[in-house]
């Protein structure tokens, strides 16, 4: 089968790879569309300790089973029997693995095999370009579930990329008010306004930071950091009201500094959110099927054999594209 292989930092090449035979309990999916995640980009750029060449990257997919049924798959494979799995926190499983990471081949290929329980059938009318957003949206479902904002909460989002945009769209379904999006790209902020943000501020200048403080007023009930850079994390706490909650989602910086004393005085609650459970994934799929969250206008598709170009474009010149999709086979 054809697969896009990450061969060295900054390079992916289309190669012929053996098609793995599904083991007992596994199914094979013929991939139609694969999404490029920020974590794939971090791997591609050589920044990820768990994505080492040679590796087929990718964990987001829309595809078909051999009998033609259209499916999406939860790419986070948990063991199912450790204490965390038994408690329904499969995202904290002691031995989880993810497609396109460590030794597990990913979705930038014609076929992928995984346990049958990871598969969800999707309706014929759900386009693949929407389906493929199920996995990133599952992260957002999870973060709102575990941070449990109170009704009519005021929300700020730091970072207007894929995750920030999905958080914005999902928040509109759960009663968020006065949603502010901050970013360092005017283009992304323009998109955030089109997606329904109440206000946006570019924080890359001192004036921008002053404007953020003015807009924030007494601060937000919930602040989501969908960036993960050091300054973004601090900005999230700066935007949070006394007694409010900051959700840390972005994983860009391994370590970063934080003004702890100010946050302690304000009794900020910090919630760290990682991945999703199978229930979150299912809920995300239901939101997509219902048409309640749709980012497909802001996606861009390139064929798998132009993978190098696709990776470079989304890593360095995303423009208004929030999600790059690789076309592996004709899809609907
Ligand atoms: Zn992802
Ligand atoms: Zn487990």
H/E element order: EEEHEEEEHEEEHHEHEHEHEHEHEHEHE
Whole-number radius of gyration? 20 Å
Which structural class matches the secondary elements? alpha/beta
- Point out poorly predicted stretches: none
CATH architecture of the largest domain: Alpha-Beta Complex
What fraction of residues sit in β-strands? 25-35%
CATH topology of the largest domain: Quinone Oxidoreductase, Chain A, domain 1
- N- to C-terminal separation? 21 Å
Major sheet description: 7 strands, mixed
Q: What do you see in this structure?
A:
The structure is a single chain. By secondary structure, this protein is α/β, with parallel strands linked by helices. The chain has 2 domains: 2-133 and 295-327, Alpha-Beta Complex (Quinone Oxidoreductase, Chain A, domain 1); 137-272, NAD(P)-binding Rossmann-like Domain (Rossmann fold, 3-Layer(aba) Sandwich), CATH 3.40.50. Helices cover 29% and strands 27% of the residues. It contains 11 helices and 18 strands. It has helices at residues 38-44, 83-86, 128-131, 134-147, 162-171, 186-194, 206-216, 230-239, 260-265, 278-289, 307-316, and strands at residues 2-8, 11-16, 26-35, 55-56, 60-64, 70-73, 76-77, 97-98, 111-115, 119-121, 154-158, 177-183, 199-202, 220-225, 240-248, 269-272, 299-303, 323-327. The strands form 4 sheets. Strands 3, 5, 6, 9, 10, 17 and 18 form a 7-stranded mixed beta sheet that branches. A 6-stranded parallel beta sheet has the order 13-12-11-14-15-16, with helices on both faces. β12, α6 and β13 (199-202) form a beta-alpha-beta unit. α4 crosses α5 and α4 (134-147) crosses α10. It is globular, with a radius of gyration of 20 Å. It starts with a strand and ends in a 5-residue tail after the last strand. The mean pLDDT is 96. The structure holds zinc ion (2 copies). One zinc ion (ZN) binds next to α2.
């Amino acid at each position: 089968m054809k697969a896009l292989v990450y061969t060295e930092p900054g390079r992916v090449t289309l190669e012929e790879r053996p098609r793995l035979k599904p083991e007992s309990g596994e199914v094979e999916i013929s991939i139609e569309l694969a999404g490029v995640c920020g974590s794939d980009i971090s791997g591609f750029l050589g920044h990820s300790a768990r994505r080492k060449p040679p590796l087929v990257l990718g964990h987001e997919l829309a595809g078909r089973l051999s009998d033609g049924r259209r499916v999406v798959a939860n790419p986070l494979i948990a063991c199912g029997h450790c204490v965390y799995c038994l408690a329904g926190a499969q995202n904290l499983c002691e031995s989880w693995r993810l497609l396109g990471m460590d030794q597990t081949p990913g979705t930038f290929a014609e076929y992928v095999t995984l346990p049958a329980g990871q598969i969800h059938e999707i309706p014929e009318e759900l386009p693949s370009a929407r389906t493929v957003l199920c996995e990133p949206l599952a992260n957002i479902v999870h973060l709102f579930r575990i941070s449990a904002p109170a009704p009519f909460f005021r929300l700020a989002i730091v970072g207007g990329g894929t995750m920030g945009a999905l958080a914005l769209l999902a928040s509109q379904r759960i009663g968020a008010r006065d949603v502010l999006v901050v970013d360092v790209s005017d283009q992304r902020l323009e998109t955030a306004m089109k997606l329904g943000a109440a206000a946006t501020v570019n924080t890359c200048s001192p004036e921008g930071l002053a404007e953020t403080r003015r807009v924030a007023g007494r601060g937000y009930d919930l602040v989501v950091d969908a960036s993960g850079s050091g300054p973004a994390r601090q900005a999230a706490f700066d935007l949070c009201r006394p007694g409010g909650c900051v959700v840390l989602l972005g994983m860009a910086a391994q370590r970063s500094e934080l003004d702890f004393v100010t946050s302690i005085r304000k009794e900020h609650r910090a919630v760290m959110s990682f991945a999703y459970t199978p229930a979150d994934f299912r809920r995300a799929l239901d939101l997509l099927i219902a048409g309640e969250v749709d980012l497909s206008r802001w996606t861009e598709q390139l064929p798998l054999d132009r993978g190098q170009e696709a990776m470079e474009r989304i890593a360095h010149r995303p423009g208004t594209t929030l999600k790059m999709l690789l076309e592996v086979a004709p899809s609907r």
